[in-house]
Amino acid sequence: MDGGKFSWAKSKDSVLKTVQGAGELVASYDPDFALIEEVDLNSTRSYHVNEYTILKECLADYDTVFAQNYDSAFLFYPFTQPHGKSRSGLALFSRYPVTDSLRRRFPVSTSFSKFFDLDRCYSISRVPVDNGKEFVIFELHMSAYGNSDAIREGQIRMLAEDMQKEYEAGNYVLCGGDFNHDLKAAEDDSADKESWAYPFPREELQEHFAFCIDQLTAQEKNDLWDSARNADMEYVPGVTYTVTLDGFIISDNIECVSYEDINTGYSYSDHDPVYLKFRLK
């Protein structure tokens, strides 16, 4: 689907090994929260392996929330290896009890291109805090820039308004996932980039919100491992296009203690994990 040779995984065994490996990697960091996107429940591309079940076994002591964002009976494309049946979504794992969770549907294209895109959404999950407030986690997977300016702007506006409502209610807000925008790039960045990887319009965020990556120095940001690679070829260091699409937005009542992109060499996916340590103020 991204210009590579195959639209399915190499084999069922490779799916089992990579998802197990990804789950064990997450568990090795012993996180309080883990946000994982593109988790297949029953898809042709992943040989109908229930990846969510594997992740739940790796993170057995966690509360978990699943928000479905793709459900296709059968997509007959690409014609040489049809994408087939797909059912997947966003998974949240929490060390603390999640008292409520809501799926919010992003505005998406209504044109023919919808058949090649996901039913983009985000989940809103609530974790009670001892001071009577709530820690509210937004997990998302946004559309790529090339989809449509109007769709992109509508998704960002909707997300920003929902986060602002939670902040005004006195809550702590964290938003993480695949933003499908180049998070390292500034709005006026003229460097060569893929047509879908454009800077995130920071001015659309409310004044009390910021990307954690923006709290790094220019050198720290430049040295940060890119969280994603293009899937049009095998990964070849220095040759394959890489970009930072994944990250976190936090409200100003949360302190970013440390922030890093974990370099696995894209061993388990075309994305690598982002690791954030934070503190509620």
Automatic annotation (TrEMBL):
Gene3D superfamilies: Endonuclease/exonuclease/phosphatase. Residues 22-183 form the Endonuclease/exonuclease/phosphatase domain. GO terms for biological process: DNA repair. One of its GO terms (molecular function) is metal ion binding. Keywords: DNA damage, DNA repair, Endonuclease, Exonuclease, Hydrolase, Magnesium, Metal-binding, Nuclease. Its cofactor is Mg(2+); Mn(2+). Pfam families: Exo_endo_phos. It comes from the Bacteria. PANTHER family: TRAF AND TNF RECEPTOR-ASSOCIATED PROTEIN, TYROSYL-DNA PHOSPHODIESTERASE 2. This is Endonuclease/exonuclease/phosphatase family protein. It comes from Blautia obeum ATCC 29174.
